[in-house]
Amino acid sequence: MLGQSLVRLLGRYAEYDVLATGRDQLPRFPGGSGGYVSMDVCDYDSVKSIFADFTPGVVINCAAMTAVDACEEEREACWRTTVDAVENLARCCRASGSR
Fold first, then answer.
1. pTM of the model
2. What kind and span of H or E run contains 9?
3. Distances (CA, A) of 9 to 3, 35, 39, 43
4. Which of 33, 59, 60, 99 lies 20 to 30 angstroms, CA to CA, from 85?
C-alpha cells in the first residue's frame, strides 16, 4: 500500500523514472512513470537481474508483511521479507552504487 502511494506520487514528476516492483504479475495500480516489473525481493537473483536492467539511483523498499498475526504464525516468511529481502537490496545497492 505504501509502495503504491509512492509510485502514484513520484510518477507525477517527469524528472523521476520510477520502476515499481512487486510479486504480482501485473501492478495493482494504474499508470506510473517507469513501469512495473514482477520481482520477488526475497530472491537475490531476481533482485540482481532488475538492478542489471534498470540500474536504479535510489531504492525505496516498501516490502512488508503487514498482518501481525501472520508474522507470528509464519516466522520464516516474515524473516525473508524483513531481513533477507533487505540484505538482497543492500548487496545490490552496494554493488551498483545505488542509494
1. 0.85
2. helix 2-10
3. 10, 14, 21, 27
4. 33
Amino acid 33: pLDDT: 57
Q: Block means of pLDDT (10 residues each) for the chain, length 99 residues?
A: 85 86 78 77 96 94 90 93 95 96
Q: What is the pLDDT of residue 43?
A: 96
d(CA 88, CA 6): 21
Distance CA 47, CA 21 (A): 10
Three-class SS of 32-77: CCCCEEECCCCCHHHHHHHHHHHCCCCCCCCCCCCCHHHHHHCHHH
Cα 46 from chain centroid (whole Å): 11
Give Dmax over CA atoms of the chain in angstroms.
42
